[in-house]
Each structure stands twice: as structure tokens, then as C-alpha cells.
Amino acid sequence: MSRTRTPLFALLAAAGLFATVSPAATAQPEQRHVLLVSVDGMHQSDLAWYTATHPHSALASLVAHGTQYTHANTPVPSDSFPGLVAQVTGGNPATTGVYYDATYNRALLPVGTTSCAGVKPGTGVDYTEDLDRNKDSVDAGQGLAGLPASVLKMTGNPRTLIDPAKLPVDPRTCKPVYPHQYLQVNTVFEVARQAGLRTAWSDKHPAYELLNGPSGTGIQDLFTPEINSQVPGGPSGGDWTTDNAATQQYDSYKARAVLNEIDGYDHSGTTKVGTPAVFGLNLQSVSTAQKLPVSGGQAGGYTAGGAPGPVVRSALDFVDRQLGAFTAELQHRHLDQSTTIVLSAKHGQSPIDPTKLTRIDDGALLDGLNAAWRAAHPGAADLVAQSTDDDAMLLWLTDRSVAATTFAKNYLLAQSGTGNGATGAPKPFVHSGLTTVHAGADAARYFGVRPGDARVPDLVGLTVPGVVFTGGQSKIAEHGGAAADDRSVPLVVGGTGRGRSVGGAVETTQIAPTILRLLHLDPRSLAAVRAEGTRALPELDR
Asked: CA 151, CA 253: separation in Å to the nearest integer?
């Protein structure tokens, strides 16, 4: 692909981050690299605010010398799993088969099944921290001494940290279905591997071995410290997400892994393997800063005017420092001209405006739905087989008939009650906090699959902006829905222009074919690109 590139060393020198080096030190290497930085929760509005108020920052430099897409959207649901899968496959849930990290599948056998003859299919599919051999330890049960300082010694093959007894079972083989086997399409990591290139990634659970793709071998070095584990020496019940300073400490381990990889080592920094062609990480600090009402004695979330509050500002500063460290190390290793940094997010977070927050106890709503169903159908089981509710409502039902899906829809739309707002004061709601409910065949159409699909939810409830389903007051924002705050994320391809801004609508699915184009590989090597006609991001070759 022909395109104009501004070397990273030049943009960072302009920002005062380091001095310009001699021409001999900046010779263009033959091999190219793509570093993908995905910042959970970050909105396009966050990037715009930060670059305007921090004009000499690493983020501002990336934007000033790259191509920025100001109307980029994630898939729906705006969860971490489909959000990142979109970036590395080019596909939406209808194509990838990944709707959330906790779902239901009517074609698989229940978790722990060992004798499959005569077992009725239908089971929850939980690809979260619950799969870990020990979800209370940051090494997910590997058994390392000296944690958390020793966490970089974790295996690069997190499949070994997953307890197979916690996995759903394939009725054809009577064997557990690992996350990578669940993904229906291949990934950029697999395409790169097939081309003989090296791959690496860092993320928040061992379940992200999903990114290996159906081959199971897409990522050579996958570093997955468990974010929902207990913080050593921290308060009982407190994981790395319950305090933003702890989240930043956690994220720093993954950032160190990337620096080691830039230097040509594996994530631990101990084995020389060469800098990956496709690598990167997910950062969680902005996400927890948005969710926590208070952290470190300061307010989380945003002001009433939509500006980041002190904890979110701290988290954005942290992200900026990591980006600055990555770009500086690339220059130091003379990889700046051959490496493209892509910045985006798996999802945003809703609401930005704290006055819109309405917290609703979804447990009470679903208990009421099940009770009403049993009352109308004596002897029947609960209607809800699986619910995944953050700031959207996804339900899989035990009865998929038109009568059952209509019953669930009508029940939810008839419910009113009282939740609570940002201050904890009572706040009334109607229609279960939902604006639209797609049920049965309509839910399948909403996602673009055929009715009866084994994976698709039977009911999708889209919320009033600001509604968060939670039984308490421990969070002030969530993701998973279809609101603009959930889906409007930053998307910047660094070093591809002098501050070019593209205002047309794009999707984060377009990151995957773009990565392959940057590496001079065929985007149509991706099954999802072929299925959906996903195009690479526009205007990079101008």
C-alpha cells in the first residue's frame, strides 16, 4: 500500500519527548510491525479533550502525525469480547459467533459433561475469569512465587491456566470447547503466523486465548495476568479493578511486556525472539476510572459538563505515559519508521453525563419474570436460562417459542419501579429501563442471523441512555449496549499523515484488514472480511 508516513521519532521529537537522531540511525528496516493499543472505556470525546488540553502529549503527537477517525463505532453488543474480536477478525457477532464473554449455546453440552450419550444440549458459556485454575491469583493459578512482582514470569500459553472442567462440551467429540475453538473465524494473528511473522498480545484473562483463533496457534506469546484476582496485600475482596491506582499498577505489567517485546524479547524479557509483527495490549485503567464512584478519595467518572473527573484524568495520563514509553522505545531500537501504532478501544462506557445515570436491579426484574412465567405455566422451569445485563439486557430462554419470547418482552415493558441515581437518591424508571426490546425472530434479525441460531440471544433489550443494571451503588457506568457512549471510540493510525481527520463513519472491524494491509498481507485472508465485505480504513494511502 502506498502511503505517506511521518516517522514516529520525528513527531515525538517535535513534542519534546526526545532528541532527533542521525539519518543513519533511522534507516528503514524491511519488516514492518503493527502495535495495537486498545484502551477499554475510552471515548472519542476523551481523546479530543485530552489532546486539546495536553497539546504536547504522546496522544496529541500520535493524532497530529496520524490519521484520526472521529466517528468510529464498535459492534453491538459493546462488550470486551466482541469488541476486541472485531478488531482482530474484521467481523461482527453474527459472523464471529462471539456475542459476549458470558453467553448461552444451544448446541453444546453442559459444563463438566464427561459421558455425552443422551445428554440434552444447551449450556451457559462462561469465558471469564471463572475459567481460571485460581481466579484469586494474578497468575491465574500458575503457582509463581513472589507475586505480583514476578507476574511477568507467567506462561505465554494461558490455555494451561484454564480448568477444562469449567468448559462447555462439544457433543461430537465429548471434549471441552476452549475459547479459541469457539471463535468461528480466523484472526490477524493466524494470518501473520501463516506468513512466517511473529505475534504477541497481552490481555486481562486467560480466556483471551480466544484470540489464538480456530487453529489454536495464532499468538506465540500471550500474556494474561488475571485482573479480577485479589491484590496481594490489599483489602479482602478487593481485586485490581476496585481501586484505580491498583488498576494502573496491573496495567503497568502488560505495558512492561510490550516494552520487552519491542526490545525483541518475549513478554518476560528473558528470551530473545525478535520484535513481533503484530502485537499489543489492552489497558483497563480508563475503564475502572469511569466505573468507580470514588477511588483514592477522588471522584470517578465525569463532571456534569462531560469533562473527565480527577480519576479519569489520572487514568488518561497513565495511558499517555505508556504510549510515550512505547514510542520512545521504538525510536531507541530504530523501529520507529517500520512500526505503525493503532489506537482504539474495545468499547466505551455509559453514561458520560452523571445526571443520566439510573441504576436498576436486574435481578429483581428477572426474578419477577420467572415467577410470572411459572404462575402462567404451572410446573414449568424458569424462563430465563442465561442473562447478561450490563447496560443492555441479553436473555437466552428455556422456551424459544413465539409465545415465550413475546411473554418475556411484554412482561419487561410493563415493569416500572425505582432505581437510584448518581448520588444514590431514588430514581424512578418505566419499561424496565428499556427503550426497545427485540425478541425471538426479531432478536435474530437485529443481529443479522437466522432465527433458531444456537448462539443468538432470544431477547435483546436496549436501554434508556444512562441505565445501568446493577443491584447496588458500586459503579456509575457500564458497557455492552448500543448507546453512543458505549460505541463511540477513538481510532487513530499513527504515522500516516499530518493530522488528517476523517469524519465519515467507520467501524472498529476495519482495523483487522488495515493491519494486514500495513503488513503487506491480503485482508481477504480473513474469513470475516470475506463474509462481511469489511474494508480497510480509508484515506491511509493518500
From this structure: 8
- Tell whether the model's pLDDT for residue 47 goes beyond 80: yes
**474 exposed, middle or buried (CB, 10 Å; 0-12, 13-18, 19+)?**
exposed
Residue ranges making up the domain that contains 396: 358-469
Does residue 278 share a domain with residue 199? yes
Q: Cell numbers at residue 467, please?
A: 441505565
In this structure, what C-alpha cell is assigned to residue 361? 436491579
Beta strands in 44-91 (DSSP E): 67-69, 72-73
Residue 131 neighbours by CB distance under 10 Å = 23
In SS3 terms, 423-466 reads as: CCCEEEECHHHEEEEEECHHHHHHHCCCCCCCCCCCEEEEECCC
Residue 94: half-sphere exposure toward Cβ, Cα within 13 Å: 15
Spatial distance between the Cα atoms of 461 and 433, rounded to a whole number of angstroms: 9
- Residue labelled with grid coordinates 471469564: 128
> How far is Cα 258 from Cα 198, in angstroms, rounded to an integer?
14
Name the packing angle between helices 80-89 and 511-518 (round to 10°).
Answer: 40
Max CA-CA distance within the chain? Answer: 81
From the list 72, 20, 35, 115, the residue with the least C-alpha distance to 325 is 35
**Over the stretch 289-320, which tens digit does the pLDDT of each residue have?**
999 999 999 999 999 989 999 999 999 999 99
| CA proximity to 341, closest of 356, 326, 328, 322 | 326
Distance (Å) of CA 325 to CA 1, 60, 94, 284: 28, 14, 37, 17
Query: Both 253 and 362 in a single domain?
Result: no
**Can you tell me the distance from the alpha carbon of 25 to that of 334, in angstroms, rounded to the nearest whole number?**
6
pLDDT at residue 537 is higher than 90: yes
Q: What is the mean pLDDT of the chain?
A: 93
For the chain, the distance separating the N- and C-terminal CA atoms, rounded to the nearest angstrom, is 10
CATH number at residue 499: 3.40.720.10
Cβ atoms of residues 291 and 300 within 8 Å: yes
With respect to residue 477, please indicate whether it lies within any of the assigned structural domains. Answer: no
383-421: pLDDT as tens digits: 999 999 999 999 999 999 999 999 999 999 999 999 999
Query: Is 475 part of a structural domain of the chain?
Result: no
Distance from C-alpha of 323 to C-alpha of 39, rounded to nearest angstrom? 11
CA gyration radius, the chain = 23
Residue 348 CA to residue 486 CA, distance in Å, equals: 4
Cβ–Cβ < 8 Å for 208, 179? yes
Element spanning 316, H or E: helix 310-332
All three cell numbers of 263, joined, read 526490545
The total number of structural domains that make up the chain: 2
Of 123-127, 493-497, 532-536, the range with the lowest mean pLDDT is 493-497
Cβ atoms of 397 and 408 closer than 8 Å: yes
Residues 447, 94 contacting (CB under 8 angstroms): yes
- For residue 350, give the nearest of 472, 486, 471, 462 by alpha carbon: 486
Between strands 278-283 and 33-39, the pairing is parallel
Domain annotation covers residue 474: no
